[in-house]
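Backbone-to-sequence.
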């Protein structure tokens, strides 16, 4: 994971916990030549930050509704006018990303860029 992928509020895992934490800040430490990430109350080297894979459970926690197509075995996640179909987000007018979305922080960043609203757990 790269530091430039993270925004304040992104959900990530740390090497030392299987509980998701929220990024509070990302800072460059020149004397050590690495980024540190403040997540919840801990300080982590960027090397110890791991992305959260998109799963049905996570999508439900972020307020998406799950639609399963039994015939084709496909799953879509919908929230408002947005649909995550595989790894691509659509907004009713067509696909809005060309780079596949695999992780929760990527979805959070794109959703915020398009709507100005955060994806919040428990919505």
């Amino acid at each position: 994971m790269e530091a430039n992928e993270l925004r304040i509020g992104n959900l990530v895992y740390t090497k030392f916990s299987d509980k998701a934490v929220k990024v509070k800040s990302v800072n460059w430490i020149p004397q050590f030549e690495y980024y540190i990430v403040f997540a919840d109350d801990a300080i982590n080297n960027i090397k110890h930050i791991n992305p959260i894979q998109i799963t049905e459970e996570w999508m439900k926690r972020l307020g998406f509704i799950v639609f399963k197509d039994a015939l084709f075995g496909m799953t879509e996640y919908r929230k408002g006018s947005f649909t995550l179909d595989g790894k691509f987000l659509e907004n009713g007018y067509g696909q809005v990303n060309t780079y596949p979305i695999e992780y929760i922080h990527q979805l959070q960043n794109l959703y915020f860029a398009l709507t100005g609203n955060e994806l919040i757990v428990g919505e």
